[in-house]
Design brief:
- 4 copies of one chain form a homotetramer.
- Chain A is built from 12 helices and 15 strands.
- With 339 residues, chain A is of the alpha/beta class.
- In chain A, the strands form 3 sheets. Chain A has a 7-stranded mixed β-sheet with strand order 12-11-7-10-9-8-15.
- In chain A, β1, α1 and β2 form a beta-alpha-beta unit.
- Chains A and D meet through α6, β12 and β13 of A and α6, β12 and β13 of D.
């Protein structure tokens, strides 16, 4: 079996998961790791049996053995790293967001257009979740008719609130940090772009977010060009766990994905009633999706054809535009048009 | 609207509920109450605005104004009271069990046969529950094909265990005290009689039941004459609440009734997960069924035709026979044939 | 038991249900019916054994025997009939909406203020549903903390679309016709009033609604004065049945009511999977609520104290104001402030 | 990363899945395939890029490069192949059943005892399912107290009935063919062995099974040595899909695994109601479990310690004994003791 030789940059929580996934895939080989933290770099390289390590991303992409890179570095670095890697002839898998400004995203779009022979895939892992993929197939097959309302929630557990507060200065706000996945799903499942948005919310439990023009819980209502409606809710204070839930109502039927955010198939009948426990966090909920998207990326590199469900640079730029529009509407209190 | 004038005997928890239900029905009038406890009798008669009170059942049934009696006295008294009431020309609604011996039940069957002009209805209220009735309609309409397996659970909450222990000397054991409703449902939903049974169980949490040849949790597997299978489980130690759940698997489909023993339509998403709270007890779960069965009894008296779903004396006798067979099998450890 | 003597006006589908409910309640007596359709009036009076009939509402409220009136006439007549009945010294139960203009609603508010000795109750039956009432108790007890997001759906089945189209010229639009119940719930459960709203939607399946500045599916996002968010969706094209579903997310927990719009407790395992069937329509879903609200009204008249959960004239006026604001936002495409 | 070199025998549906899983695991290398069907052998070896192929099992185990074998050949061959492989110094993963007679199973037990340095693991994949594993942890941690009742269903879809009928002469009957997984779970989750069993059932839809002393749907009730109860149901005629569902009721709580046999997290709201679609078959339902058990086997070989949840030869022998006891009880109509 052909194995894609991958170098991966960034060893944060998700970066490490990507590295482990690459190491475990039959169609990939993790040949290099890159991170500025040397101690962490050595530890993980040893644990994962990775032959090469780099503290300099440009050095890594200069390595001729490497076919492709996985980028899970801080968001602000994504655009320049993607462009550099493409220019160095590497296929690129990049974690979301594509960039933290629309201009940066447009640079990546151009780089992708200039390197059509290289595979680029943006990390919208929900598209690779079995349930989301199944729902998309049903929509595409016409089972729900014409989309009327898309609704999606992304809620982080309250127990992670301290980390969220610490990250708040750098997060770009909840629409940018959390709701981008819901925004991507809305576009992907409706098959259309939003034209106008209103967004509200606030600091219901943790006033710390206010100084960053952000809230601990926010929502947005969008009108799509086709007339479809989209409602997003993003929160950080769910006591019950990690809750990502999506619904699409059409003229002929409705699909709900994970309306009960169940951890597994176990029900507990005990004091209090009948309980379904929830996923702990995104790594638990989307464990398999992260693996599937990376496998699909490797297959894309092998076959030379982009993964059918993979996010493109255009997807990344549009999602960033929409997230910014939501943020503008939230801050101004006004309706915001999206070009 | 024609109103049936009813005298009701027995002011225990369920007897009082029956009295309240009669008082609230548009086609009934609660004209008399009977109980040996004079204090309780006066209190409830005042509360429910009932004109006549009796401490002697025979005096009540001698009252010419009374059209029908509701019998919710201690189980051992049921057969003689039913017979006396029928002989006095009264229609009779009798709470389960029909009697505590098969011989007693046969006496009631004879009395019913001798008074075909009078309505007799045994209190198998589950048949009047919206969900059980809906399931029965589907079965009768052929939706599940031929019955394969009937399964039914009756679990009382652990929090009522002290009352259960106190009542144990008089209960007749769990098959007789609790499982009779499941036995009745099995016969009613399968449309057949069991031919052979094995029963097991024990005292898993409360050894007090052992001295009465009973267990705190028991089960029985039955072979019906047609070949259908029936599995019953009756328990007294459910921490989650009152749990009555029934399933019937057929060759073309399966129906489940109350597989989540939910109290209402509220889900609570909180610490621990997504929870459906349970019913507290049989009065909460079957509140509407008790009202419906009494209304159906009154309609039956008015129309002169037995309620289509009402329990008959034969039903009562057969259920008693089957419950005794389960108990015999449980005590002997052997298979037990049912004639 | 004291019985309130009630005259009921309007024998449409819901009016007839109210009449039947009054006739069946132990604390009420249906003494008069009023409708302009004489044939229907006679038929139902006979069926329900009602002694008096009127084709003139003013004649009915002149009847000294009558304690209270139930108003289920066409919406445009509600305000004048309520005022006339109060002036005639009758207690009043009035079906929603209170009136079809805010000015009309204010007249009723004044009449109620002038007759504080009389009970007035507006028909927001969902407040009397076991599940909504249970959720409200939990909210009031602090179980969910501070409200963050209220979400509510009201969907009629597609199979009733012809009737909806026929009624469209008179309905006042979906916010006024359907969403008023959700608007009332939002205010009642959050305990606050909305300050600003945006509304969108359209004719996704049936263009007939467009000529009335209405859509077949619409939604609204609201900012409440306290900062809480409210999202409403009202649709007329649900293939699965009648779907009324409500969620309230708070800082300490979330409550969902009827997230699976199940008809009863039966699950069907058959071709296609595991299915919960839905309620057919509002009369099936809220059968018991309609009875409970009327019983509560009668108890209120008897005790002289308004039903704790009963809708007031102010509730009716505010709901009408909010529904109009939604409609204005929907038509104009702009944000709309609510005074 | 250390990779275990595995040769796999048997390329039926499950054997092929095992081969694919081995090929995809980071801690394994599929170095050889063995099957009597040369055409199939070549095709799959090419597809999976496997260097060596054998039509003779003994030739394969003579290969010095091979560390371990995976046995997914016809059941009757399992015992001798396991023994031969162990004698040849190979670690062994063997698909269930261990053998089709208790005597054969005892031979394997002896071989395992004689080769304690080698890892042997029997393919009870349900133990490696996330939900079953989670439930087992909760039981072991005391969350449900003392086991009272274990209940487990295994239902194949009706749509596979032709294959089931064709295989009936060789299947050993439903207790042996299907219920062995439930029997294993019962022992594993209760932590005890059954002492006595009664079994019933029949041919409800397909009389073809009768000639093999089998039924299309069967059940068994077991008394465990500790007094716990066990109820198993195995069917071949489920219209809704593949249904494996397990429940364990304890003195302090109840756990249910897959009580809704959902395919994924998608709910479909459409004609008929709210539907959860079911898994198609065992490969879909237990896809991840098959991978996990093989990964655990490889880890066991690497570490030299048997997988904590892995099935042993003793497990295999006991399950076979119990399945035979069920079959005896089913055929004789009598209670059957288990030594």
């Amino acid at each position: 079996m052909k194995k894609i030789k991958i170098g991966s940059v960034g060893l944060g929580r998700l970066g490490l998961q990507h590295a482990k996934n690459i190491a475990s895939l039959p169609n990939a080989e993790l040949v290099a790791l890159c991170d500025v933290n040397e101690e962490c770099l050595k530890k993980e390289a040893t644990a994962l049996d990775v032959p090469k390590t780099f503290t300099d991303f440009n050095a890594m992409i200069a390595d001729k053995e490497i076919d492709a890179v996985c980028i899970a570095s801080p968001s602000a670095l994504h655009p320049q790293q993607v462009c550099a890697a493409l220019d160095a002839g590497k296929h690129v898998f990049c974690e979301k967001p594509l960039g933290i400004t629309v201009e940066d995203c447009r640079l990546v779009e151009k780089a992708c257009a200039a390197h059509k022979d290289l595979i680029f895939q943006l990390g919208f892992m929900r598209r690779f979740d079995d349930s989301y993929a199944y729902a998309k197939e049903k929509i595409d097959a016409g089972h729900i008719g014409k989309p009327i309302l898309f609704r999606s929630y992304s809620q982080d557990p309250e127990k992670f609130i301290e980390g969220a507060i610490a990250f708040a200065p750098h997060s770009g706000g909840q629409f940018f940090d959390m709701a981008v996945h819901d925004i991507d799903l809305a576009r992907w499942m409706i098959g259309d772009e939003p034209a106008e948005v209103w967004a509200i919310g606030g600091c219901y439990a943790h006033k710390e977010f206010a100084q960053y023009d952000d809230g601990d819980n926010v929502s947005a209502l969008m009108k799509f060009k086709s007339g479809a409606m989209g409602f997003l809710f993003a929160g950080r204070t769910a006591p019950h766990g990690y809750n990502v839930e999506t619904e699409i109502i059409g003229t002929k039927g409705t699909l709900r994905i994970a309306s009960v955010p169940q951890k597994n198939l176990v029900e507990v009948l005990g004091n209090g009633g009948i309980t379904r426990e929830c996923s702990e966090n995104f790594l638990e909920r989307f464990e398999k999706s992260y693996l599937s998207e990376m496998s699909a990326f490797c297959e894309a590199v092998i076959s030379g054809k982009p993964a059918p469900r993979g996010g493109t640079a255009e997807d990344g730029r549009r999602v960033t535009e929409i997230a910014f529009a939501c943020r503008e509407a939230f801050i101004s209190g006004q309706l915001h048009k999206i070009s």
